Amino acid sequence: MIPSSQFVPEPWAVRETALNLTDLAQSESLFALSNGHIGIRGNLDEGDPYGLPGTYLNSFFESRPLPYAEAGYGYPETGQTILNVTNGKLIRLLVDDEPFDMRYGEIVSHERVLDLREGVLRREVVWASPAGQRVRVRSTRLVSLTQRSIVGIHYEVEPVSAPARLVLQSELVANEHVPAQSGDPRVAAAVQNALQPQEHRGRGTRALLIHRTRSSRLRVAAAMEHVLDAGDDCRTELAVHQDWARLMIGQELQPGQKLSLTKIVAYGWSSQRSLPALRDQVEAALIAASRAGWQQLIEDQRTALRLFWEGADVEIDGDLAVQQAVRFALFHVFQASTRAEQRAIPAKGLTGPGYDGHAFWDTESFVLPVLTATAPHAAADALKWRATTLPLAVERAETLGLRGAAFPWRTIRGQETSGYWPAGTAAFHVNADVAVAAARHVRWTADAEFERDYGLPIYVETARLWSALGYTGRDGCFHIDGVTGPDEYSAIVDDNVYTNLMARENLLAAADAADRHPEAAEALDVEADEIHFWRRAAETMSVPYDEDERLLKQDKDFTDHDVWDFAATAAAGAYPLLLHFPYFDIYRRQVVKQADLVLALHWAGDQFTLEQKARAFAYYESLTVRDSSLSAATQAVVAAEVGQIDLASDYLAEAALIDLHDLQHNTRNGLHIASLAGTWLALVAGFGGMRDFDDRLSFHPQLPPGWDGMRFRVRWRGRLVQVGVSPHEVTYELIDEERTPVRVWDVDTALELEPGVPVTRPVHPVKALTARPRQPDGRAPLPAAELTARATS
Amino acid sequence: MIPSSQFVPEPWAVRETALNLTDLAQSESLFALSNGHIGIRGNLDEGDPYGLPGTYLNSFFESRPLPYAEAGYGYPETGQTILNVTNGKLIRLLVDDEPFDMRYGEIVSHERVLDLREGVLRREVVWASPAGQRVRVRSTRLVSLTQRSIVGIHYEVEPVSAPARLVLQSELVANEHVPAQSGDPRVAAAVQNALQPQEHRGRGTRALLIHRTRSSRLRVAAAMEHVLDAGDDCRTELAVHQDWARLMIGQELQPGQKLSLTKIVAYGWSSQRSLPALRDQVEAALIAASRAGWQQLIEDQRTALRLFWEGADVEIDGDLAVQQAVRFALFHVFQASTRAEQRAIPAKGLTGPGYDGHAFWDTESFVLPVLTATAPHAAADALKWRATTLPLAVERAETLGLRGAAFPWRTIRGQETSGYWPAGTAAFHVNADVAVAAARHVRWTADAEFERDYGLPIYVETARLWSALGYTGRDGCFHIDGVTGPDEYSAIVDDNVYTNLMARENLLAAADAADRHPEAAEALDVEADEIHFWRRAAETMSVPYDEDERLLKQDKDFTDHDVWDFAATAAAGAYPLLLHFPYFDIYRRQVVKQADLVLALHWAGDQFTLEQKARAFAYYESLTVRDSSLSAATQAVVAAEVGQIDLASDYLAEAALIDLHDLQHNTRNGLHIASLAGTWLALVAGFGGMRDFDDRLSFHPQLPPGWDGMRFRVRWRGRLVQVGVSPHEVTYELIDEERTPVRVWDVDTALELEPGVPVTRPVHPVKALTARPRQPDGRAPLPAAELTARATS
User: Fold this and answer.
1) B66: nearest CA partner in chain A
2) What is the ipTM of this complex?
3) Helices in B345-428 by DSSP H: which ranges?
4) What residues of B are labeled active site?
């Protein structure tokens, strides 16, 4: 059952007008604020009730031993788990001695608004205490996009009808109790009370707590400062203890009078810096933010977002639900990455503890294509993070007996922490995903320096990995055996097409970049023979194809296998499969968890004919159960390419609404950042038909039925290209202020775009070569109209 | 480096003439005594020094949680570990207040003899205490083959040169400290102090301790009784505590006077029986054994072994080292099984804690073929044990979403306890191994009742498993995908030949037996359609074959893969591979841990031509690294079949001497019972060329160069057939007392053997079709002559 959304669509906000206590954890994820460095879940200011309290710092984790029933060579021994750090967003309120708690008394009115242009979470509540005292609370919360270490909260309370004695308690709390996220008691044991107190101090309205993790030995400092707007009779009191600090503010107010508080919280952490250095760092951040003041923080926030939206917004005419969803999606993708600054972008961003806070290949394969086109600085930072982890990846490759670098399947800091190798170590495609994302970034930005300093080392070491992993078979083809592709319902297969074709791009990127940067390549010991080997391997890369059926095979043996019994599974309601069937049974049959061959159709689309794509898409649609959130967006892209526009719409809606509608029933643990990024891909690469093969930026736009228009912008080689699509026409326009022209392609026609000279062309809808593909029983996407209607009902 | 043996070959004993303190644990395994129900390691009577103390009861284990870094559906959650139970073999000695400890003082002479005809371990030591007091100690130890619960020790001590004050301390000790066998602290935690005291009592010279395991809730009782032969001035004192009981005997002796003690220890355990019932059981066993007395126990032991050797002995003329080794091997195979009585035969028997005391497929595939031919009652018991675990196997199959029964990959009591599914759950061949072992047992014994009551239910449920696991592909063949064969260096493959051909036999066994026992089959809900399906699946079973290369493929894709870099591995000394390379790397290349396709050449040899076997053997020899002890024997069998007689000799020697020479450096943890059984297979199926295809008992004898003769006996349909091979002739003879003839085959010629009328035929040595196959660098077996020479040097 798909729950309907509680959020009425509107273009620039997500608005909650009633507090749903049972879905609190979901709204905490949706209303999470972040800048990529700090993330705070949308917990209520007063702390209670909560679904899941959460304050995260990028790459701040606790480590724990990874246990195995049977040990194996090369198994990672240490896991990493994101930690809920010192909570600085707490502001409790007592009304005539009764704690403001929305489970008691009466909620007269409630509204929370995530403002996608302002970058703040606003709340306004009128609450009547059990004793009948009414107060209005307004709060505005931000995680600063311009001051990386800063969280700001503006909090205001006023009695509505009668004088009231009010007490505010603004707190820092370390080692909050967090509900267990795992059935494994060892995980819980590692995460509970992980912060060991090292220093606590306070004076006036300011307080500081410093802690260090037990096992990973990371030190975190959190400090708070307050600006109070209150009458003279206001009384304050500061208490500071090892695990908590509290500023109490007491005042009696008349109706119409307000008690207003600005709270600035600063965070800092380090694995290396000394305690005094860290203390100084957060106090400096506090001073800087306090000096700027609340209004300036708000304005800076708005400006940062305006700049983002100017280059990234997608406007949709005719579908408000998708309009809201894509902006919500882009907002969170931006939040997750803009100030990550050479740290990872986790699968959940910093919105929740899901997947232990780990980053996967999703970042490079789903998030970075969006950032490269809309916020290239963030993409560059994310790729630089991977580059900084190259020494760890080289070490890992050595452990595995390979050459080059093997990036981790899942990690927070760069070490492999995957405890199940068939779906971890064996999923070597992550290495090509990283390299290809870097190559794409270079293609889009034409940033030669980035290529030389960050791209090339990544390409070279990953190309070396592929050289070590693959071999030339008796058929003269280059084969890569025994690996796992994106589809986690197949594993340890030979010649996975996606892996092979991404490896091909990886090898070519290494060869090309080495040719372009001979000195840098030499410094990496790249020799002519090696480049020749890479090109030869790329040219002869095996792509399994069934000539009789004219069908691309996901891997060498895939289409030989027995087909999964979908009817029985549907009858038993046994989805997701991995919770109801053993791996061995899933692996040995034709069943696809998520786009894999279809993902190759998208990203290596130049390697196939349209007919091959259409046939393959139809075939794999019949096997794909979408037990992963990393699927619908890709299916939307390829559906659009092969002319299955209705189906593309359905998949777009599913990708876009995954969190707003909690389609996977786990938004509580954090947002699906890659699926949200996929919303943009479905729109721009799907309905926009955007591709970048052969260094050409090309489009093949076509609107879904019922839409009147779509307009999006991408940043191509520093230039802002706008594409406006209507049902029958498409208009390309350069909207920046440089004077040089830019070449883009409309389908197969090159257009030289001159600044200020829009070019309009007719749209060429793709004619479908097959009937609408069928999905496995019960696994067809909901019709987009039906899904989005739930949002408006 | 292969250590030379410390044991000089002799035909009927293994004799140690010097105590090697560093190899103590190895000799404890070699000198272990067992009857399949109780096993005691060859620890010195006085307990110290020890390598690894060990007293085991078949199927007595402690359970513990199996942890996983990442959980998966259907993973077993509880492990089982064999426990060192109450030690009853301890007899300490004080000589003038100095403890008799062979690390101190002087060992004047030392000898231990494992007597393979008497079934006892004898020891004679002359020791001078640090103070110079000399004593002679003689002990004889047995685990009764006729009284299942009984261990007996006869201990005698005398001063050699001067009067001595002697004290004997005969003990029962529970919860002995055992050196950790695993790097995993959780395993150690489960096993240390696992026995919780429940009752302790004693009177006179008798004492009893009852304990229960913490987690598996099994109760064990151990009791001891003593008969003393000493002078009147002897003084005794009994002390009984929760975890230990001790009878002290003090006496002053003159040279020539002896203090002599017979100690009888009785064991009993149960998961269900009450404490009083268990107490009564062991006390009854004590009384029965005491009443029989030491001499009777010794005589019964000799008789039991005489009966065994009459039907099982292999006599070799011309190779004393192999002669000794095969008798040592058969002795331990017999010990491990004869009184197991519907409990498992573990991979190590009851000789050590290796593999946690688990039983694997080795039992059915290596041990039972020997027992069926030499000690059929023990084979029947082992198969009945499997039959008793059918309900657990059916439950496991249900968990896995399959029909029929899925026997565990590793277990003590029948529950799956394998913590790594690619080499556990996926190794479904264990099911065919069980079924085929039962079918072979029926073929040999013609025991229709056994077939109906035990064989048929096993065949039917395992045939149902294969029906669920396999499918008919587009090529019309029956395929079994995603399984792991015997070669643990490949995993999750399609159409493993060994698995498929064993499944074929399994399916045919089910169909044939169901036809023969229609009522029993009906009771199992077998219908005509199902039988038809089984036959059809068997007939169309896929056997991957490369027509171009005329080569059998181990599995569908095996020969396509890159070949392992053996040269580099040899140079790095990186064997066994699994300790130096990750699974993914091992799985994706052509490298074979242990006979797999070659195992199919043996057991499904009727499915191939001799030429196919010769070509396949040569090919897989070049890839097989023998990182498993379950390989050399099979390579010997097939080498002999394809005329590679020298190579067969080398492999025979390796299989035979695996423990006597500690070839795998782990004999300390227990003997390799399956490899020991393989010694017999190498001799009888290898040089004897014995096969049983098509219900024919056939031979194709040929001796290795340098041997003058070999004579062995097998029990075929209740009759004792003797085969005597000389370099040029073979003589078949019926040596039992029945009057009916028996048909056997010499190569392709049927012989009707009449009682008392030997038939002599010329031998037909097989002409090799290929050159002597090469093994991977550094992995060729040592020449047999060189290996056996080490035993005599």
Assistant:
1) A69
2) 0.92
3) 362, 368-374, 376-388, 390-399
4) 488
